[in-house]
Amino acid sequence: MALNPTLREQERERIAQHVLDLVKERGSEIPWTVAMAESGLTRARFEALFADYDDMFDAVAQTWLAPQLAVMEEVLATNLPPQRKMYEFFRRRFVISQERFRADPHFFSILCEMGAANFERVRSYVDLADHYLCELIAEAQAEGFFAGLEIDEALSLINQMISNYTLPDALIYLGDKLSEAKLARIVDTMFIGLSGEAGADASGVNTLKVASS
After folding, report:
1. How many helices and strands in the chain, by DSSP H and E?
2. 53-76 helix and 82-103 helix, angle to the nearest 10 degrees
3. pLDDT tens digit sequence for 17-39
């Protein structure tokens, strides 16, 4: 009997969480055939839920990234001042990743490797985060920040400045060198100095000019 959409999604989420548990338990990525054998479902039922490995990976990624998506949406719904709102947008996701890394560095590293190997499958989550960040940039510009910058330009600059706090792999290499206090300083610095008012040759700086090649 076919599952209705709600029950099907619940079952996909249950299996996705089970796959995550298996990855943690065994310390390695779980192939589609192994996940099927360990699911407790018939082959026909499993294939009705997941057409192939990519489909299963999508469900696993959705389950793993759900907390980050939730906090981004929570921050967007707040009425915080632009600086604080931008900070919370990055801080809350960073805290989730930091807590997961500290709880089990090996498990965290394996999931980072899985994400890198399947980046095209998680690109939509990166794009969604960028979409939300563009909304925050537009709100900040409405209050006079990031003057003279196109939204896409501000997006690119901010992503490059803040990347150590958004790329999970950075925790593997930098660990406790990353902190909420340092993140706050970075966000403050962005709001103080990131603009295009200095002209095309020195966007966002006072005296330092980039020599033309």
Report:
1. 10, 0
2. 140
3. 999 999 999 988 899 899 999 98
